[in-house]
């Protein structure tokens, strides 16, 4: 694990313990739609959380998306992730797959997920079968739709903010139609990070009947959690998260005549605040919700389990400056620029022995090994179930990595030669040693932690 992550985890744990202490045996109140002040609380403390009810989305899109979810499940294409939380390796209770822009990845809780590419006609991607190809296309369409709705909702938010001084209804709006004839979000013009299109969706699935243990929500007593309190990580600052919810009648479940199945809900709370009541919003099949603007930063959310099996498609703007295939390929090219194959004898040589050049290559060596190759291969063959998209690039990255291994050996052989002054060797080692040590530690960590 990265040192910074460990440090942040530690700080968070201390803060959390303090909150729980302050709370003692009591619980903080939370409100649901059954409570009188629910809508007022929504408007005052959670206005950037918005729901669009099932009716507002075209019914064909519901059908296509719901069929896609079921196809993923039918073909065994959803997986529990081994994530790292507070220094422990844990399997997520929800089963997941990342779908998104070709070549994009999303990193959460020390795990990098590789997007199964969503299909656009012009792309030459071979899917394992038509059903999975259709499924990826469905999430592409859902993504376009949710993005258009996000733009509307952000505009509405801006209008509401400007009108805040004017009297308003008490009820937050449930949009039933696309209402895009509103002023632009960023009237000043220029790019607005908040309205970047979603580039990936993380699909979640859980059947509570087959989960023997789910954690109880600890602060409010909201019930069993499928996903614990968190902020979504690794997103563009202030970008919205848009989620489509689909719970359905499971095969083994016996419908009970007079008691409703308990509903799946989203819990929201203000981060590190035990004064403001929590907020629980039940979801029906086909509802979508949006965490607009900076809501994901100021608030935490959790998913409270209902009794039915449930899918969600969570669309996000992943921060991908170091997370695309294009990026890592170009990094590898940079590292390998220092490698020269002598045409006379076919031997590998280093072009430069400058400390900075060598160090950069070792940095990239670590990056491609731990952030890409090990992450990919640890997740096994899950991506092959969909398409051939990642196969060739991963073989190529591995090939680059092998060349970098050779480069490291060349440096170490080189500095053993007698011609080097002590200072020269020290200079190189001073920069390289930390990276080589990091490599050794990370290799050991991977061996230990992933063995389980
Ligand atoms: O399933 C949901 O509604 C949200 C899940 C979630 O919070 C996440 O995947 O980050
Ligand atoms: Fe989340």
TrEMBL record:
<comment type="similarity">
    <text>Belongs to the fto family.</text>
</comment>
<dbReference type="InterPro" id="IPR024367">
    <property type="entry name" value="FTO_cat_dom"/>
</dbReference>
<dbReference type="InterPro" id="IPR024366">
    <property type="entry name" value="FTO_C"/>
</dbReference>
<dbReference type="GO" id="GO:0005737">
    <property type="term" value="C:cytoplasm"/>
</dbReference>
<dbReference type="GO" id="GO:0008198">
    <property type="term" value="F:ferrous iron binding"/>
</dbReference>
<keyword id="KW-0560">Oxidoreductase</keyword>
<dbReference type="InterPro" id="IPR038413">
    <property type="entry name" value="FTO_C_sf"/>
</dbReference>
<dbReference type="InterPro" id="IPR032868">
    <property type="entry name" value="FTO"/>
</dbReference>
<dbReference type="GO" id="GO:0042245">
    <property type="term" value="P:RNA repair"/>
</dbReference>
<dbReference type="Pfam" id="PF12934">
    <property type="entry name" value="FTO_CTD"/>
</dbReference>
<dbReference type="InterPro" id="IPR037151">
    <property type="entry name" value="AlkB-like_sf"/>
</dbReference>
<dbReference type="GO" id="GO:0035516">
    <property type="term" value="F:broad specificity oxidative DNA demethylase activity"/>
</dbReference>
<keyword id="KW-0223">Dioxygenase</keyword>
<keyword id="KW-0539">Nucleus</keyword>
<dbReference type="GO" id="GO:0006307">
    <property type="term" value="P:DNA alkylation repair"/>
</dbReference>
<dbReference type="GO" id="GO:0016607">
    <property type="term" value="C:nuclear speck"/>
</dbReference>
<protein>
    <recommendedName>
        <fullName>Alpha-ketoglutarate-dependent dioxygenase FTO</fullName>
        <ecNumber>1.14.11.53</ecNumber>
    </recommendedName>
</protein>
<keyword id="KW-0963">Cytoplasm</keyword>
<dbReference type="Pfam" id="PF12933">
    <property type="entry name" value="FTO_NTD"/>
</dbReference>
<dbReference type="GO" id="GO:1990931">
    <property type="term" value="F:mRNA N6-methyladenosine dioxygenase activity"/>
</dbReference>
<feature type="domain" description="Alpha-ketoglutarate-dependent dioxygenase FTO catalytic">
    <location>
        <begin position="35"/>
        <end position="320"/>
    </location>
</feature>
<comment type="subunit">
    <text>Monomer. May also exist as homodimer.</text>
</comment>
<keyword id="KW-0408">Iron</keyword>
<keyword id="KW-0479">Metal-binding</keyword>
<dbReference type="GO" id="GO:0040014">
    <property type="term" value="P:regulation of multicellular organism growth"/>
</dbReference>
């Amino acid at each position: 694990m990265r040192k910074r992550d460990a440090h942040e985890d530690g700080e968070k744990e201390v803060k959390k313990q303090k909150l729980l202490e302050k709370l003692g045996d009591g619980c903080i109140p939370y409100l649901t739609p059954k409570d009188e002040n629910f809508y007022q609380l929504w408007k005052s403390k959670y206005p950037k959380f918005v729901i669009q009810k099932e009716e507002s989305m075209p019914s064909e899109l519901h059908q296509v998306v719901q069929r896609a979810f079921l196809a993923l499940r039918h073909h065994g294409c959803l997986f529990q992730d081994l994530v790292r939380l507070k220094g422990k390796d844990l399997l997520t209770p929800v089963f997941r797959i990342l779908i998104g822009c070709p070549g994009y990845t999303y990193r959460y809780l020390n795990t990098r997920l590789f997007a199964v590419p969503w299909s656009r006609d012009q792309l030459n991607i071979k899917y394992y079968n038509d059903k999975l190809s259709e499924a990826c296309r469905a999430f592409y369409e859902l993504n376009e739709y949710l993005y258009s709705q996000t733009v509307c909702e952000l505009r509405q938010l801006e209008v509401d903010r400007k009108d805040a001084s004017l009297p308003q209804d008490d009820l937050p709006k449930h949009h039933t139609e696309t209402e895009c004839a509103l002023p632009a979000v960023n009237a000043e013009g220029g790019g607005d990070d908040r309205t970047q299109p979603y580039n990936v969706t993380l699909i979640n699935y859980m059947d509570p009947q087959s989960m023997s243990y789910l954690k109880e929500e600890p602060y409010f007593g909201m019930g069993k959690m499928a996903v614990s309190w968190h902020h979504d990580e690794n997103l563009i600052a202030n970008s919205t998260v848009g989620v489509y919810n689909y719970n359905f009648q499971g095969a083994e479940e016996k419908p009970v005549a007079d008691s409703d199945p308990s509903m799946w809900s989203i819990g929201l709370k203000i981060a590190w605040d035990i004064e403001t009541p929590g907020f629980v919003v039940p979801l029906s099949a086909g509802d979508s919700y949006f965490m607009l603007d900076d809501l994901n930063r100021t608030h935490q959310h959790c998913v409270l389990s209902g009794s039915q099996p449930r899918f969600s498609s969570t669309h996000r703007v992943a921060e991908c400056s170091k997370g695309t295939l294009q990026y890592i390929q170009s990094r590898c090219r940079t590292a390998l620029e220092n490698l020269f194959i002598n045409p006379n004898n076919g031997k590998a040589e280093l072009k430069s022995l400058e400390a900075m050049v060598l160090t950069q290559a070792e940095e990239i060596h670590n990056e491609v090994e731990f952030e890409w190759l090990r992450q990919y291969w640890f997740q096994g063959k899950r991506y092959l179930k969909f398409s051939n998209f990642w196969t060739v690039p991963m073989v190529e990255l591995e090939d680059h990595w092998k060349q970098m291994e050779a480069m490291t050996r060349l440096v170490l052989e080189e500095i053993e030669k007698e011609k080097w002054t002590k200072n020269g060797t020290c200079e190189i080692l001073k920069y390289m040693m930390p990276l080589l040590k990091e490599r050794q530690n990370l290799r050991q960590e991977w061996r230990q932690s992933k063995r389980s």
